[in-house]
Design brief:
This protein is mostly helical. The protein is built from 8 helices and no strands. It has a single domain, classed as Four Helix Bundle (Hemerythrin (Met), subunit A). It is globular.
Length: 213
């Protein structure tokens, strides 16, 4: 591939609407944290932080839809989208722990899920296989996380402290994350089995068997 063609491919990746949305979501993390800290220690107003995280959550739903509908999926997007998800979730989770300590178990589950998925993805990539795209249950668990975050923060905003409601919402979110992890684990072992089958039956062997038939 010539340098001109490479530059064209790279520029297309950078200029897609989904990639721009992912960049914006990453940039929104800083003002979210700033407004959240200001709400906790200075103003007592969490509304700006809630608005920012709501914008980030809604845009997360639309960037994938836009990419598929307008054929703007790209290699850069495959990295940016999950990166924006992980950075946002980590930032939000850490902030929530300061106002609701019982969010910590949910954060542990989320981090464990993401670490295991990164390890599994790395293993699959090293085997020369491209990991599958995010599934509906992966997106659903992320969306539930945003919902639980919004509810916990809004309860703080209106000074409505109901531990039962908070634990119920966080419990559903944790369940979705565990469900997502189990399904991704099944997919991982299925891919591993396919890889092993191909390694045990290389193309040359399969061709010789076909010739004999």
């Amino acid at each position: 591939m010539s340098n001109e063609m490479k530059n064209e491919v790279i520029s297309k990746d950078l200029m897609t609407i989904p990639n721009a949305i992912s960049f914006i979501r990453i940039l929104l993390i800083t003002p979210f944290v700033a407004f959240f800290i200001a709400g906790k220690y200075i103003t007592g107003n969490y509304i700006p932080a809630v608005v920012i995280i709501a914008i980030s959550g809604v845009s997360d739903l639309f960037d994938g839809m836009i990419a598929r509908k307008f054929h703007q999926e790209s290699e850069l997007g495959k990295v940016l989208d999950p990166l924006a998800d992980k950075l946002t979730l980590i930032a939000v989770g850490i902030c929530l722990i300061f106002i609701e300590p019982y969010v910590l178990p949910l954060m542990i589950i989320m981090v464990l899920k993401d670490v295991l998925m990164i390890i599994g993805g790395t293993i699959v990539i090293n085997k020369g296989v491209i990991p599958p795209k995010s599934s509906w249950y992966g997106k659903a668990s992320t969306f539930m996380f945003y919902i639980s975050v919004a509810m916990v923060v809004l309860m703080e905003v209106f000074n409505y402290h109901n531990e039962t409601v908070s634990l119920a919402v966080l419990g559903v979110t944790a369940g979705m994350m565990i469900f997502s992890l189990v399904n991704y684990t099944i997919i991982f072992f299925r891919i591993q089995k396919q890889i092993k089958t191909k390694e045990d039956n290389p193309p040359s062997v399969q061709a010789s068997i076909t010739d004999k038939q």
